[in-house]
Structure prediction request, 210 residues.
Amino acid sequence: MVTSTQYDVLKEIMLTRGSVKSYDATHVMPEEEINELLTLASSAPSSWNLQHWRYLVISKPEQKQKMLPVAYGQKQVVEASIVVAILGDLEAYRTAHQIYGDAVEQGIMTRELRDNLVSQIEGAYADKLRAQMDSTLNCGLTAMQLMLTAKSMGYDSCPMGGFNPQKLIQEFNVPERYFPVLLVSIGKAAQPARPSSRLSLNELVIRESF
Prediction:
């Protein structure tokens, strides 16, 4: 059961999160905080629990400089404590053997159910377009969880769709199995995010049918 205090904390995190473009370049995020951040982000839901995301974490100054032209010169990639490139897994079906194998060993599922699920997943992801669309969708789920977790830890962030995916692949030797979906800069804000408005529910919500 969610208490009013838990709700209030979550509400504040969601409403105060904004896209920060300027960071304190001197702040170094401790390794244990990076691991905590990514652990919580990775608890996001995913189709068939395949966890279609991989996190390419950029924290060293020389690597951030390599990221700068990839991000078309956006300075937050060198000022932020870390930049997380969220990569989609085009072969996420391979993970099913491990995930459902573990479930069988733990007595959570039968071997028959595991085999049926693995067969279903492999059939669905034989369609390469489906594999890419599912990976993109699920990367969006972990990206949002990453940014909300960062805010709860006292950091700010900015999702960045404006970058050159092919250049990122080349500069950081990304294997063919993975494709770049999004960059997220994370660090201590030097300037707050610009205020932004939201459409009203009357403009956003359609109840039952158009």
The mean pLDDT is 96.
